[in-house]
Write a structure and sequence with these properties.
Strand order of the largest sheet: 9-8-10-11-7-12
Strand content: 15-25%
Number of helices: 11
Distance between the termini: 49 Å
Radius of gyration: 23 Å
Structural class: alpha/beta
Shape: elongated
Largest sheet: 6 strands, parallel
Order of helices and strands: EEHHEEHHEEHEHEHHEEHEHEH
């Protein structure tokens, strides 16, 4: 791949166009995307113009965004050369985080050494998961580095998704013997009444986001087998009392809906060889009026305890539809 900067004589030393040559036309087609939609996304985000000329891409615009666009295109092409798929999320990540090395330093059986290279990758059975923002990158690092970690921020920032991905990865690598996922069974502002069916049928609607995350990382038959063998458990927070969770990766989701006593109970379940992750959104508390959130109390009481990490996200870390970030910012502005 060759890069050259073309400078018209009347513009001094400021390059007005950067030409990038790509040796593999098939990979270049994948890089551009259907109807050049990948190029259009980069153009829209960076305010540049990208023109295809045979096996070359010409990037035009101001010097700084032009250089950034060229680096993003190089990194995405290197990803394709490494045999990895290219999705819109990968482009979004490079635009947010800037250029990083393709070689991660990760080797089979060495998942905990995944940070020797520039980029962080979480390996699961079905897909490769990569943080898209700096906050997500720091969060994933802390999940591997600390036995107890908190992820606090608005919806759509990947708090639960990344935690479950790390849990699955550590389980597959043999660092933990089981995965335990839990949430408070609290309705979001409306009474559903008594639900039909057995206990599993009654609690499954509350646990569905956790099932969704697991289905992204494990094949259906393997997931069903692991759940049948109790290697993976999904249970309401109320079912955690009296247990000692050893050699497990434990996630408490929607922790803002746990009471102070429930939070204390859950945190004290941590056993030998286990890691625990607490995720929550302080702006979406569904507890009855006057009942304090256990997440807020834990944050206040434990923020100086060594070995516990607190990781915070903002609307800039939202990785769902771009409108979600705008919605969150609008509500935050109104409440302020």
């Amino acid at each position: 791949m060759a890069i050259s900067a073309l400078t018209p004589e009347n513009t001094g030393n400021i390059p007005q166009e950067t030409l990038i040559e790509f040796p593999n036309n098939r990979l270049l087609i994948d890089l551009c995307g259907e109807f050049d939609r990948n190029l259009a996304l980069i153009e829209q985000c960076l305010g540049v113009q990208i023109v295809r000329r045979g096996n070359q891409l010409a990037v035009m615009g101001e010097e700084a965004p032009q250089k950034q666009a060229a680096e993003v295109l190089e990194t995405l092409y290197a990803r394709l050369e490494a045999g990895k798929p290219l999705e819109q999320g990968d482009i979004d990540r490079e635009l947010r985080m800037g250029r990083s090395e393709v070689d991660t330093g990760v080797r089979d059986g060495d998942q905990l050494g995944m940070f020797d290279g520039g980029k962080i990758e979480i390996h699961t059975r079905k897909k490769l998961v990569e943080p898209r923002t700096d906050a997500q990158k720091t969060y994933v690092r802390s999940l591997f580095a600390n036995e107890l970690a908190f992820g606090i921020g608005p919806a759509g920032t990947g708090k639960t998704y990344l935690a479950v991905a790390v849990g699955v990865s550590m389980f597959l690598e043999g660092h933990v013997d089981r995965i335990i996922l839990s949430r408070p069974a609290v309705e979001a502002g409306e009474r559903l009444g008594f639900l039909p069916g057995d206990m599993k049928d009654k609690v499954d609607p509350y646990m569905q986001p956790l099932y969704d995350a697991l289905n992204d990382f494990l094949p259906g038959k393997q997931l069903a087998k692991l759940m049948e063998e109790k290697k993976i458990e999904i249970a309401p927070l109320a079912f955690m009392r009296g247990r000692t969770l050893s050699n497990a990766f434990v996630v408490l989701d929607e922790a803002q809906n746990a009471t102070t006593m429930q939070m204390k109970m859950f945190l004290t379940r941590l056993g030998e060889g286990s890691r625990m992750v607490i995720t929550g959104d302080r702006s979406q508390i569904d507890l009855p009026r006057g009942v304090p959130s256990g997440l807020a109390d834990a944050e206040r009481l434990l923020n100086t305890v060594k070995g516990i990490s607190f990781n915070y996200f903002t609307s800039k870390d939202v990785v769902r539809h771009p409108l979600v970030a705008a919605i969150i910012e609008a509500y935050e502005k109104d409440s302020a």
